[in-house]
Amino acid sequence: xxxxxxxxxxxxxxxxxxxxxxxxxxxxxxxxxxxxxxxxxxxxxxxxxxxxxxxxxxxxxxxxxxxxxxxxxxxxxxxxxxxxxxxxxxxxxxxxxxxxxxxxxxxxxxxxxxxxxxxxxxxxxxxxxxxxxxxxxxxxxxxxxxxxxxxxxxxxxxxxxxxxxxxxxxxxxxxxxxxxxxxxxxxxxxxxxxxxxxxxxxxxxxxxxxxxxxxxxxxxxxxxxxxxxxxxxxxxxxxxxxxxxxxxxxxxxxxxxxxxxxxxxxxxxxxxxxxxxxxxxxxxxxxxxxxxxxxxxxxxxxxxxxxxxxxxxxxxxxxxxxxxxxxxxxxxxxxxxxxxxxxxxxxxxxxxx
Length: 353
Fold this sequence. Notes:
about 350 residues; alpha+beta; TryX_NRX_thioredoxin_dom
């Protein structure tokens, strides 16, 4: 793959309104000494597939739009430049369907927690998640919470959409409203399905990982599923290992509850990192996991060629195929904090995965 970087400002000189554009595509011509920088861009902009086009504010460095390819398709003349994010209420504005063909206005979502569900009938993982999501939806509603889901279809025909939507007890953007479906995809930079975006009562994003949260919390005790600083590695959340660098603390724990001391050890550092980047309105550059002695942990150790030591402190960067290992006899909060600080300051030397 290669990355082309360029500036564009509708023919004007670059200023604070200009967009910095990162275009990710495939190519055979890759300079080895540029690989690390390129992978950092992939991680920074959460690129999971190619081609991908990301628009960034040149003045602040903040992402304007993750799904630039849809922007180019929907606005080829640049009339909506600089394509900044709009409030959810504005993008979803319009009639929404129920599976009995009755309609309701999107204003009915005001004051509710909302799940924006990108899915399609032709996608087997989507159908599996929908079955679980139906039960979770009912449990949350029965508990008295104001919660609604809006289905944004990626089906290939209206007939398929109608069949799939008949299984859902929530709302949907009409299949015929392709423009609104596209705008919602652009708003959240959707690169794959199923994706469940969870929003608070003000329309602000709680998490992009609704799918993982639903699967990890079938009883919905953690609703509305605010991000947790530290996760216990499992089959359902292991997909997040591929979304960017992850700190994983491996410990000798086989029984439920034995991971708690490990979580308590790294949680203050994780909370500090989350708070720091939230204040800057940026995504956290590092996710935090603890892993015990189970098949999932063993598979991860084998795949990344890690030693069998426990405790073992690591940072794994799957997209860059790189790992950073801190193999010490005692892991303390100070050790973890220094390890994280050195990683973020790019002082650590990576080993290949």
